[in-house]
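Q: Is it fine to ask for two folds in a single conversation?
A: Yes, each is treated on its own. Send the first.
Q: Here.
A: Result:
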Amino acid sequence: MSMAAELDTAAGALLTVWDGARERTANRISTVQLRAVMLVERHDGINLRRLATGLDMLLSSASRLCDRLVAAGMLEREPGRADRREISLHLTDAARRLLAELRDDRRRHLAAVLADMPPESREALLRGLRAFDDAARTRVVPSPVGQVEEARADQVAHSRHAVDATSRDWAAGDASVLQTA
């Protein structure tokens, strides 16, 4: 079996934890709505055209999606400062709470699984995932929304610092895992 096939098989458990958290926490909005909320979180003030590009959908579809997210209390629209026809999108407090619940749930479940692993395996997993992340980022085409992912890089650097500080002491209740949505 190739390394890629083995990784694909092994990653299934991680994806199950990931998807389970999304299903338990984010069941108030659809998967595509959650993707939109996460994109707005990463690019606060994004306009509708860039959101549509980032989600790989038609502008009209993105507009209807935003209408539903505004109605659900997840997004706010704000007229642009330079051009009032340009609308910028921002998360509401409800959307921020939803994302925090999603991450907290996911981290609890990840921490429980990590607690069942020997410490050296946890360290090896973390090192391997970091190397994978670094390698994957060099292959990824720049963000379709046209913004440099500096905020994401800062978030990852902050997360890595937090994980480094606590990785030797992970316990089932510890939620100090990488901050991703």
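Q: Second one now.
A: Result:
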Amino acid sequence: MIVDFLAGAVPRPEAFALSEAVTLGRLRGYAEHFGGKLSPARTHAEVSERWTAAHDEALARCPSEQDFLGMLDEGGIGLAGVYTEAFGSRLGVPTAGNQLVADFVRTAPDKVVGFGGIDPWEPDAALNVDHAVKELGLSGFVLSPFKQGLLPDDPRMARVFGRCEALGVPVLLHTGINWSLDAAYDVGHPRYIDAVATAFPDLKLVALHAAWPWVEDMMMVTWRHENVYVDLSAHRPRTFTRPNSGWESLLQFGNRQLADRVLFASTWTLLGVPPADLVAEVRALPLKDDVMDKWLGGNALRLLGRD
């Protein structure tokens, strides 16, 4: 079975729009970097205006449930992760609640798995982890330190990590470069994954985006800790074989020592590319047949306890 470990935001109009509006409207630097001709916003009013415009535009782009599941079928994807995040305390914008993710998962439990959001600044963060797992049935959580204004080794994050470790659910942690002009560029460096994995040895950690451009460091950290994984989200697999792309270590170690620790993820909304095309790009990589099967699904199923 092919597993798209992190396909994108839960495809419900308001939840989808809130997720897209953060990236393309609220985060200074993202719309400017990916949008081409925009200059960095200089005032809060300008940021608010861009957030509103991005939200309204995204409402119209949200796929229907049928269209979303159809995209998965076209890519031969048997299971896909959908998610929300929670960072209102620092960014000051609304986010979709975990209940919306749980409701969507219940419509197709054999096809989708849900990952929730937790705001580490909230006093009830640890209790919210328990509620999302035990009451809502979510399978893990997505955290973005650069959006939440915290380093991964901050004590506020530790409360969340500790509960996830105890409950046996993975944390999907943003790693690698971020384009926000309001956050340090190296908040996602693998050294923080190393610190968290050392403090919480039984915590299942997924380093989203494989920490590019620090991929070699990420491979070494993954090799050091048996419960650390990397995913391919937010990057085109077709670029991995290009000279000086920075992905050489992923192909080297991911095809051998770390073959059991790489997860396919499309984040198709960010890339604007159908999941089927990204699956095809993975299949074109110079991987051993058994490794290909692991990257495209076997590792994810084992991590989720569905193997």
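Q: Anything structural to flag on that second result?
A: Two points. The chain has a mean pLDDT of 95. The two ends are 10 Å apart (CA to CA).
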